[in-house]
User: Fold PhnA protein from Sulfurimonas gotlandica.
Amino acid sequence: MSLEKELEQRSGGICELCGSSEGLSALEVAPSDGSASQAIYVCSICSSQIQNPDTMDENHFNCLNDSMWSETPAVAVVSYRLLSAFGRQDLVEMMYMEEDIKEWADAGLPDENALVYKDSNGVILQAGDTVVITKDLDVKGTGFVAKRGTAVRNIGLVTNDSEHIEGRVNGVKIHILTKFLKKS
Assistant:
């Protein structure tokens, strides 16, 4: 039996998180071995929001109040991770999971000590992104000004400081404060 068919049968043909029956597909819960026990059956809205955390709508996930009690470990793991991402510690603390399931759920959470780089608008920056400078900046030691509107492609993240990124402007590698940048 295929993974999709097995998940459809297990879920009764509805999203295992919100109960919708529109645009259903399998979503593997990392780390996964590809089995149905480590995947969930979700609608297109839940799937797209889980895969793009920047677009998550907390109101859509009010359904987690029910799905967090699922007897299916993969559903409980996803519920735990989403509730943690929304800062709903009150609901996370109410959940009961076996130790191995809790370890699986914790393995997918972001590292709390990891640096988060954000531009002037609060958008999270990743290595390789393209940003635009929002203010004319004097570049020390070079004798030129990085003009407002200049695109800085393929940025690098400074390892010990979330307020700086590295990038090339006029062929020169420089450090730029993130408060003077906008992700493009």
Observations:
- The mean pLDDT is 90.
- The chain is about 25% helix and 20% strand.
